[in-house]
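Two proteins, back to back. First:
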Amino acid sequence: MILDKQNLFFKDQALSNTTLTSDTIDVGEGEASDPMKLVINVTDDAGAGSIVATLQTSPTTDFSSPISLIAATSPTFTTTFTISEMKGAPIISTPLPRGNKGYLRVSAVSTFTDGEMTAALVMDDDIPTTE
């Protein structure tokens, strides 16, 4: 998975048990026939918790009237199932839905209290396979 600075919502954002609002990405209005994917990763030291991420769009940078495109929920991780067991796979990976108005941001409700989160738009999320 290649992370492009222009398509980053969060980069190593400290996690806390709160709602986090990302940077705004200017993607231009319109749709793509092969949409990018929203991916969210957390670091191994995040411990137990989950994230509910809402991808929002707006025709203006101030998001005075944001439109929610999708809400994606991660699995709930416990101390018996660690993130490192996922072999680097994103905890959330979902195609960018239709309805983009030009600007995008992510609002994430986290129950994690440790670790860091990265959220971005990518072309290929490199879901690992087990062999």
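And the second protein:
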Amino acid sequence: MHLLISSPPSQTATSSCCPQCAAVMSIRLVEPDLKDPLKARHVFECQECGLSRAYLMITGEPSQLAARPPRGGQWNKR
């Protein structure tokens, strides 16, 4: 069994390389993540074989990320 391993495209990428056939994958959809407003789902589709890949990208500013509480919603108090 072969494993298809590829690195995710950058946040600003509009195309990527298909891990299945090595053709060009174009961006088809960008939508906000419903669970996290600082992330968006980027969907790429291969022009040759039709393979789709979705990547969850961080879209918020670094200052917004630092000011966000960790999962669970509370900061650790020392």
